Every structure is written in structure tokens, then in C-alpha cells.
Amino acid sequence: MVTSYTQNTESLPLQEEVSAFLKDRTVDNIVAYVAQTASEHNPVVDISHTTPIGHVLHILDEYDLQSLPVYRAASKGGKDYAGIVTLLDLLGVLVKGPTETLPTPLSPTSSRQAPGTGSTVSTYPPNGEGDSDEQEELDETHAIQRWKTALSLPVSSVASHTPPLRMFNTMTPLGDLLRYLAQRDHYQALVHTRINPTEAGGESSLNPAVVVITQADLVRYLWQHHVEFPSLMDQKLPQLVDIRESRRPNHGVSSSTSIHSDQAVPVQTVPMSTSALRAFHRMWRHHVSSLAITDKYQTTDEASTMTYEPISAEISVGHLRGITEARLDLLKRPVMAFLYAIQEEVATPFVVRSRFTFRQCIAGLLQTGSRRAWYVADVDDRPLAVLSFTDILGYFTTY
Question: Which pTM does this prediction carry?
Fold first, then answer.
């Protein structure tokens, strides 16, 4: 018997695969996996709400983290976690100062209700329309002074604008943690667990403990079980990218428009000649965590088109971690000169093409240690999309 699938029924095997895998698994499974595979348990690196932003960047750099839990001292001792602050949150204070409402870098043109969340999702002009680098008069000297001032501000300048923190426990369904970490900017989650019984004075006791589960932990855990998702793993990237774009807030492009279409919104790029300061400001305005660095950037006003060259490198919010007050002048340098000044070598971006499967994309990310994959056109290597760990986890929640 030959079964003919429609667009809706094609996703049924994928949905069944993911549902079957998640059915009886809890957060305890991922906690046990991390404990077995890591040389030591992920330490809970946290910060007080009074910690200066400059020191927060240092801690993020020291532990190679993208975000940190923020706590206030509890009245009876211990810590009350108030939220998780991310590098993109910190960038907002550096760029705009603590008086700005965060995290809304662009004035929304419209808003809609996110299905099932009860929250409002803002939508913005496509590709920063009406807010381009050319239209912005950026006084670099004044901007760097604002960065200098912001580095001494307490992280509470940011934490008061972050979403409420959700604590998980080991009995929480794994699907709940997956959906949480598949949301934008949620790089890690805190899990209440218990350490092994300790023998003290002949008595055993269970002590509450908190462990960290990161997006990378969950991606590696799912990859360990990739044979259980054959239909999803065999999906080609063009189909997955189009699904992702169609489910995002409308950015001026029809949800039926393919990412390969000339109407599709391109990823954010900057030319090598752009200063690092302008690159970071661009990230904030477009609320993205990375930019592709290209050899050339050319606009043709008459044709209202943009031509993007192949990707040479990338700059991301992760590079904020090399910033100190003494190194602020480095922000005036072109992006490539800035990158070489704050790190020993500039990593080659991980690039994927239309022939890649989801399986090959995840394997490449983990093998190269990259946080994102740049999806480029087969013909001219023009960047079409960027796939992060957030996107990877999102595909497991899509079906």
C-alpha cells in the first residue's frame, strides 16, 4: 500500500518520534547525562544584583558563558534567584544606558499575541528599515564614554528587565525544559536537585542543591539519541529554515515566502571596514546575537537591493566578554582588527548549504565547537540564515 502524504501528515512521523522520546523522560535524565559526561558538574556561577557590569563581563569570559543567574541575599540566608541576565541584555545597557526600557531595541510596528503564552510579541521593520547604519549619526567618542559609565553600573540595571526566572526540578518533564531552552536568549536553566546522602555523625541527610543545564548540554544529549529521530535528522536544511521563518513574527515578508526568494529578509551583515562599535550597536538595534562579516557590502538605492558577499568571519555578543575599561578604544577599530586584538585567532565560521541534512548540521556544530551555523546560498555563498542552538532545540518543539 502506498501512502500519499500532505504537508500536514508529513510532519506526523517527526511528531511521533519526538513525542515517543520525550514521553517518559524527565529533567533527571539530562542531569544524570551531564554528570556522567562532564569531568565535573556544571558549576552554578552566579552573581549578586550589585555586581558591576564590567565584572560580570569578566566572569562570563572566565567561565566561557553566555548568561548568568542573578540573585539577592535571602532574609534567612541563602540566595533568591531573580532572573538570568544575558550578553544581549548587557549590550542593551552599554549601548543605551540603564534608563532605556529593555529589551526592545526597535520601535515595534505591530504586536501580536504569542500562541499559548499570554505574552505579546513585537514585530519590527524588515532588516532595520528606517533604522540603517547610514541613517544613524553615531558619535563614537560619546558612545564609548557611555560604555565606560555603563561598565561601573550594577547588573540590577539589567536584571530588573529580564523575564521572571523559572526553576526546574528533576521530576519536571524533559519536554518542558526543552521548550524553555528553545526560547530566544535562554542559554541555561537552573534545576533544583539533591546531592547524595552524606554521612555526618552516623546520620544521613539529603541537602538541596542547584545545577545548571545549558542549551549545549541539551543539544549534546539529544544528539546522543539521534538514531531515535530518523525522520527529523534526515530533513534537508532548506525545508527546516523555511519552517522556522514561517513561524516567526512577520517581518514584512509573507509567511509563504521561501528564504531562497529575493523577497526574503537577509541575515544581518557588516563589511570589514565597519567599526566594532557600530557592529555592536547594529546587533542591539536588530536584537540579534551575531553578525556576519563580509568582504564587501553594496547597496543600490535605485533597485532597492542589497548584495552580500561570502562570509569572512563573525562577530557576536560573545566578543563583549573581552571588553574592559582599558580596552574600550579597541571598539573604534574595524571589526576584524578588533577581533584579532581581543583573541589569539579568529575562528572560521561554520557554513552549511542546501545539501546538508539536520543530522550533518548538528554534527558539524558539535565537532567544530561553534554556537551557530551560517546557511549560505549554493551559487554565490550569500548568507541566507543563521541557525543557533536556540533554533536547533526549536525544531524538536515544532512538530
Answer: 0.78
